[in-house]
Amino acid sequence: MMRCVWLIRYGEISLKGKNRTYFEHKLTLNIKRCLKANNVKSEVRRVRNRILVKSDEDCSFLKNVFGIVSLSKAIVTDANLNEMEKAIELILPNSKQTFRVTTKKLDKSFNLSSTEVCAKLGDYICEKSKAKVNLKRFNVEVCVEIFNGKAYLFNNKIKAAGGLPIGVEGKALALIENKESIRAALSVMKRGVAVIPVALKQKNISELKKFSCGMRIDLEFISDLNELDEKAAERGAKALVVSDKVNSIKDYNTRLLILRPLVGE
Asked: Domain range spanning residue 195?
């Protein structure tokens, strides 16, 4: 029986050794929170270096979740050639398009090699659609991932935010003064830091909200920079993110660790 899922890929997290399970758990939690915030009913689970989101709704907004490298809406079927051929009919290229088949086999128990799967499915696509194979200059890439006795077939791959899941590297205040401050805050968010934006007056933080999946983010006000330590203690933050560059480094009257992610520019 065929069904659709969203196939979520993450890269950097899988390199984190002993912390890997914690990072995967945090990413899964952030995904669930993001789905809930968008009122999407779903089932989320981790399988073989992938996260599967079972939902019939559009989940492409998950591309803004830090920690996700890419995602695809995939057709799921049993990992046997006949079932894969049935599934692939739903994503066939048209006769005027060129294509190639790419197979990633994570399940070593499957009896065909990745090359054999590509060849057999490629022949089937040619027969059914009359499209031509072009391994380098193709219009459509038909992808197959095989693991845990299932095959996942798709012809789209949405690039996502990458980086690390928000929250794995603690909290920091982010001093919001201008657009560069927003860039600085996003830079550390991508490295897994949960930021608390603070400002002396109203600022637009819509871009931070867009990528804040996994945490609630609201602008908090201070009347003076001398209040930074008090605000940090109140919110459990250990650092301060600022937009200083090498030619505009300022002194801040704070005991917090100063993070200057734009200083190399």
From this structure: 171-259
